[in-house]
Design brief:
14 strands, alpha/beta, globular, 7-stranded mixed β-sheet
Length: 357
Amino acid sequence: MKLFIPGPTQVHPDILQQMARPAIGHRTPECAALWGAARAGLRKLMHTESEVLMLTAPASAMMEAAVRNLVSGSSLHVVNGAFSKRWRDIALANGKDAHSLDIAWGEGVNASSLRAALEERDYDIVTIVHNETSTGTMTPLAPLKEVMQDFPRTLLCVDSVSSMAGAPVLVDAWGIDVCLFGLQKCLALPAGMAVASVSPRAMARAAEVPDRGWFLDYLKLAKGNEKEQSPTTPSTAHLYALVAQLQRMEEEGIEARWQRHADMAEATRTWAENHGWVPFPAEGHRSDTVSCIARGDGPEFVGALAALKEQGILVSNGYGDLKNKTFRIGHMGEHNMNDLTDLFQRFDAALIAEVQA
């Protein structure tokens, strides 16, 4: 299958070959060198000087880690889609006093709404999904820094799962205390490893919070980093692939990579609008990595999605309540304009065939 879903995404053959390298001991100097190289490359990618933690786990584990390590009182969760709701649900499942700032799906939180919510009570953290994969909605984070500075006890935790390496995410410049993501979207690696940067003040907070658990304990993970090791057995296959992919991305240039994704997003929106379809997210909140398209005045698309799947081309239907009302095209990772051109031609042919059937 050729994947145009919002993740996982296509993996370059050279990176797949890295995954096939022989296993090595996770306490060897060779593995320590890989671990250190991966963290150094990730720190550069994330534009941060903070501690970078890695887990052989899905990104949801890092969502839970933020809750367990940083919340002893209350947490605030900006909810504007399925995955931002997941973070709130994780907090509730861990017995935390979790509150929601509910935003309409397709919109991102603005500074005034966030400020009003933070003024209601004292929160340990606020969680925001930068790029809500379920709706193709991106929340501008830079304007929120000024708000957060007025609430110095509240740590800003950001899910950049479907934006990191595909759109600007400037961790230190934007005042992000915890920034987490997985490898299977814009980084274009197989799923199986999660990453998070943790600011010094977030690490200090964790030291004061009891019952952080064991596997997700920030302090334990940071202690392992002192020896360039994981406290538990990591996937060395992912480490080989991650180091190689970070090198490939550096050769492309991160700004060039961001621009490639932005160009693909613009081309996708133009193609969709030419059919009478409309972007689901509000203007100013449209993702550069995954386009969520609503039917509008355009043709029915569900049959075309099925026809594409038969051809080995996978495009996502809408998520949850948006199923059959929207569809989502993931234009991220290794995809380029030639890939999109081929997709659009096949999609158009499937639409014509359905009309003629």
